[in-house]
Amino acid sequence: MKFKALLISLVFAYSSLLFASSQQGAVAMPDTYSANAAVQILKQGGNAIDAAITAQFVLAVTLPEAGNIGGGGFMLVHKDGQDDFIDYREKAPITASRDMYLDQKGEVIPYKSVYGVFSSGIPGTVAGMWLAHQKHGSLPWKTLVQPAVDLAEQGFIVHPKLASNINRYIKRMENKDLAVNFAEYFSKAKSNELFKQVELAKTMIRIRDHGMQGFYQGKTADLIADFMKKNDGLISHKDLATYQAKSRIPISANWNGYKILTSPPPSSGGIAILQWLEMYQLKSPTKQVAHNSTLYMHLLAEIGKRVFADRAEYLGDPDFINVPQQQLISENYLAFRAKDITLNKISITEKIQTSLVESEETTHFSVVDKWGNAVSNTTTLNLGFGSGMVVTGAGFILNNEMDDFSAKPGVANVFGALGGVANEIQPQKRMLSSMTPTIVLKDGNIFMVTGSPGGTTIISSVYQSILNVIEYDMTATQAVNAPRFHHQLWPKNVIRHHNGIRNDVKTELKTMGYELDNRRFGDMHIIVNRNDQLEAGSEASGRGKAIVIH
Ligand code: GLY
């Protein structure tokens, strides 16, 4: 009798475990359209990768600031216990050259790497989604692209925040007197009104019906190549026909009892977050320093100086340069790197080395399916609305990702960015990125899926989200909304931060010699799996939506 009762309770426990995990999935998305479409795909039996592909295409319609088919990004996949990193970063055109943004005196020409199609790298997004689908998808490609076709063709209601971003961008272009065609396409998008994109719908239909070839060959490729010729751009039919997304091995490291899977070069982010987390562990004087205290912020700022110095010196496209990846994240190296950090005094910036800065408009989403597969995807046009140029007849915005190269090593670009030789322009090279899609595993299972937009601040958002959840036990919603801060060597001793840092902490930091810059950054969408219960959190300042499916 006793044995029978035990057996029944074991069967019950096992089936309720199965029930808990088989009933759940979650998405954390930068807008409602992508969230709803991704949930529909999961409910139709699609896996996390299917839902991510749908979300990526939907965002190209409904979040034109950063969602795209004319840009690129990184997708980190954990599926059936295996890991994959789909690198769909843009590449420099074949005719690009190191000094293409310099004048005859060797000075950087303002805005040339930022506005107009001369600033565009070869788009990687469609190839990336295609590769992800070939390797990991389960539903038909057409099913996954159709929601984007519908939203472009039938229109969507414009969120007030999108309408205001569009208005601000159009005014900025007018003030700068820049000849971009953005307003021709987007001035009709009014707050809370329906907005249709007829040309984009046709491009999406070609992608739906012909897959990757519907973008890189045929009519879409003709439209891009013609547009380039008319506007002095470099991307040719050959650039498009030869573009390939790459499957790379994610960086994987044990930290604090967890396994962190993160982004390898050409992302700088994976190496950077691991350096940050490991040096924090090595230097933090007690088991837990109070969250966002003076000591916490100073220690992490000091680490940031070293992380960004390494980034400028060593990181770039691994197909072109030798990145000492293992060395940069090894415990011995990080112990050496952290040894001169003092807990009560700022170190001298000039003695450390230079760093890069990047644009902050990008977007990120996270998906977990009922089988425990996960996708962390960050995608970008670089600046908000990219190059400001919409391909005539094809209706999509082209990126200005070439600005993520260093236009001239050692010299600041228009955003004050300093770059190293490792990231100088070469034909077909991928530009260095800070995008850091990351997945944290506990005992082989998904524990956390995280990532953010924000240029170089992405790295701070990601490592702080991990500290928030693991060290400070925050829920997904608390973790994305906790005030964050960022320091990256230059500007000297400046800590950028969100609202919400305590006044006494700010006073103490100022007394130490820091300058504080209160400006928001990032837009986090994360999923946490605690005791087989999924939590999804989208940052309240954005227009995101997080849904757990029960
Ligand atoms: N364009 C921003 C990044 O790739 O980091």
Summary?
The chain is α+β, with helices and mostly antiparallel strands and 550 residues long. The protein has 18 helices and 18 strands.
List keywords for this structure.
Glutamine Phosphoribosylpyrophosphate, subunit 1, domain 1; 2 domains; 550 residues; alpha+beta; single chain; 18 strands; 18 helices
Write the layout of secondary structure elements.
Elements lengths: L1 H21 L2 E5 L2 H12 L4 H15 L9 E8 L2 E6 L37 H12 L4 H14 L1 E2 L2 H17 L5 H5 L7 E2 L2 H13 L2 H4 L1 H13 L6 H6 L3 E3 L2 E5 L2 E5 L6 H15 L10 H21 L10 H4 L2 H8 L24 E6 L5 E7 L57 E5 L2 E6 L6 H14 L5 H6 L3 E2 L7 E4 L5 H10 L2 E4 L6 E6 L2 E6 L6 E5 L1
Parallel strand pairs: 14-15
Antiparallel strand pairs: 1-9, 1-18, 2-3, 2-10, 3-6, 4-5, 7-8, 8-11, 9-10, 11-12, 12-16, 13-14, 16-17
Helix pairs in contact: 2-3, 3-4, 3-5, 5-8, 12-13, 12-15, 12-16
This protein binds glycine.
